[in-house]
Design a protein that fits this description.
- By secondary structure, the protein is mainly α.
- Helices cover 44% and strands 10% of the residues.
- It has 21 helices and 14 strands.
- The chain has helices at 18-33, 54-65, 88-100, 111-120, 147-155, 203-213, 229-239, 263-269, 290-293, 297-305, 320-326, 341-354, 357-370, 378-388, 397-402, 414-417, 423-437, 444-457, 462-474, 482-489, 491-504; strands spanning 5-8, 37-40, 104-107, 161-164, 171-176, 180-185, 193-195, 218-222, 247-251, 254-256, 259-260, 278-279, 286-287, 337-338.
- The strands form six sheets. Strands 3-4-7 form a three-stranded antiparallel beta sheet.
- Helix 1 (18-33) links the parallel strand 1 (5-8) and strand 2 (37-40).
- The structure holds one RNA strand of 75 nucleotides.
RNA sequence: GGCCCGUUCGUCUAAGGGCUAGGACACCACCCUUUCACGGUGGUGAUACGGGUUCGAAUCCCGUACGGGCUACCA
């Protein structure tokens, strides 16, 4: 079987959104499923949109999500360079070749001339006129000008681009791995620019040349590329032959609450849209990331994989290993998927519940420390995590549910105790703390039993005493069962907390 | 406007001619729990519309509607 080789090609223009990560993920899963290579190249041919730091950011996201490429500008490989800006000279040769073969031509039109054309030929029937078969002879290019004029312009180094010459009437079709056969009529496709005036290729030329040179066998990209697919198919036909063209799959879009998912949706609806926090260096705008919001990378790729794909069973929780085993591009749904943050959180919750203490430890420790609850005892932390993880949906929930294990409460939710507080209850706790001093068996069950015994002795319903006890130990109405808390806190600390709280009640 | 893609519960989806259209999230109710959760049980809820083809259509075909994408010397 032919070795599979797929690639992801981000442009360093900002953050890495959900759709982007899902594209990487499907690339990655497909490659690994077939035992092939996953490479990452950088599409940085548009200098004006290049954002400092974006490239590094992208690789950090991939690293966090566990989707590191086999080859990339960072990792190296046999088909580099992997930055398109470093391949500039390669593209020119192929563009010139196309001109020589009559499949492309030089165009000398200035920006103003193009604007004028779009304005002059604009009608109600045709709001956006294209540089195509019907108009190209009215423009200034090597098809409309005489050979002498063209030669003259070229020797004078006149700014020009190279455009593909769309054939007159031809049906271009290809088979999409997700959607089946798709065909286009070349009459309706315009003469796309292949090589820009600054010598950089456009996406159309670069993707074809790079995919060929890097021996890409399967190509996955967003649905928004479907309309330009005929250009790519034609370029493959002219340059390298259709036999070696990769198989295409156009992935459905990820939608927000109102149409296409945008960066703004995150801020507007309160959920992250990027893999990791991204601050735009130009505007200083921060877009929240899943990582910082408290998602586990395992949950993140799980929820993304299931947004548009399933294995045909009712299983929803998949490890990366399982995803690699079971992924198939044919089972990717063809319709766009609306992102549901509630469901995303559910995935994370499931992953936290099934994660081992060891894998959560360092993240929780960092979080607690940051929030002002230094962890002195790692063994204690482990027990705490085991006790509270079932009630945590996002990583920061651990702070709410466990910070009191590491710091005696300073304030109490008095509103919850005061109304029903009385001398009898105070006496109970005085007696209970005294009893605790001599308790030999220190565990939740024993503590609960002696608590209830004493309550019965004093003629108070144990239930009425549990809430005050909780407030004493944790400060508020939250956390795991009280006696488990007391068990972990230990005798000394429990007694200290009871006595301290009694002063405020 | 033109071209392309899409359309099953509110959301993600299963069912690729054949039993009451299944599951998950969310929501509601009950149970568990004298904190908050987890968990358990049950419930509400969908094949966009109109024509065909067929003994039989969510499924195949055509049309309509709606949604999305593209229509740059951006990717």
């Amino acid at each position: 079987m032919k070795k599979v080789r797929v690639r992801f090609a981000p442009s360093p223009t900002g953050g890495l959104h959900l759709g982007g990560v899902r594209t990487v993920l499907y690339n990655y899963l497909f490659a690994k499923h077939h035992g092939g290579d996953f490479i990452v190249r950088i599409e940085d041919t548009d200098q004006s949109r290049y954002v400092e730091g974006a490239e590094e950011y992208i690789f950090n996201c991939l690293k966090w999500a566990g989707l590191e490429p086999d080859e990339s500008p960072l990792h190296g490989g046999s088909y580099g360079p992997y930055r398109q800006s470093e391949r500039k000279e390669i593209y020119r040769q192929y563009a010139e070749q196309l001109v020589k073969d009559g499949h492309a031509y030089y165009a000398f039109d200035t920006t103003e001339e193009l604007e004028k054309m779009r304005h002059d030929f604009k009608t109600e029937q045709n709001p956006s006129p294209q540089y195509d078969r019907s108009l190209r002879m009215k423009m200034r290019n090597s098809l409309s000008l005489s050979p002498a004029e063209v030669k003259d312009l070229l020797t004078k180094d006149t700014r020009h681009v190279i455009r593909i010459k769309m054939p007159d009437q031809e049906t271009v079709s290809f088979t999409d791995m997700i959607r089946g056969e798709i065909s286009f009529d070349t009459l309706l496709v315009d003469d796309k620019v292949l090589l820009k005036a600054d010598g950089m290729p456009t996406y159309h030329l670069a993707v074809v040349v790079d995919d060929h040179l890097m021996q890409i066998t399967h190509a996955f990209r967003g649905e928004e590329w479907l309309p330009s697919a005929p250009v790519h198919v034609l370029l493959w036909k002219y340059l390298f032959g259709l036999k070696s063209m990769p198989q295409w799959a156009h992935l459905p879009l990820i939608l927000g609450p109102n149409g296409k998912l945008s960066k703004r949706d995150g801020a507007k609806y309160g959920f992250p849209v990027f893999a990791m926090n991204w601050t735009d260096p130009k505007t200083n705008d921060l877009t929240e990331g899943f990582k910082e919001k408290g998602f586990l990378p395992e949950a993140f790729i799980n929820l993304l994989a299931l947004l548009g794909w399933n294995d045909g069973t009712e299983q929803e929780i998949f490890s990366k290993k399982e995803l690699i085993e079971k992924f198939s591009i044919e089972r990717v749904h063809s319709g766009g998927a609306k992102f549901d943050y509630e469901k995303a959180k559910w995935f994370n919750h499931e992953w936290i519940k099934q994660s081992g203490v060891a894998s959560l430890e360092s993240g929780v420790k960092t979080l607690l420390t940051e929030k002002g609850f230094p962890v002195a005892d790692d063994a204690m932390l482990d027990k705490v995590i085991e006790l509270v993880k079932d009630r945590c949906t996002l990583l920061p929930d651990f702070v709410q549910h466990s910070s009191f294990f590491f710091k005696t409460p300073e304030e109490y939710d008095l509103a919850a105790v005061k109304p029903k507080w009385n001398e009898e209850k105070k006496n109970f706790f005085l007696a209970y703390s005294e009893k605790l001093r001599s308790t030999a068996e220190w565990n939740a069950i024993a503590l609960e039993n002696s608590f209830k015994e004493l309550a019965t002795e004093k003629n108070i319903k144990p239930g009425e005493l549990q809430l005050p006890f909780r407030i004493m130990l944790v400060g508020g109405k939250f956390g795991p069962p009280v006696f488990n808390i007391a068990e972990l806190l230990g005798a000394d600390e429990t007694i200290i907390r009871i006595e301290k709280a009694l002063l405020s009640f």
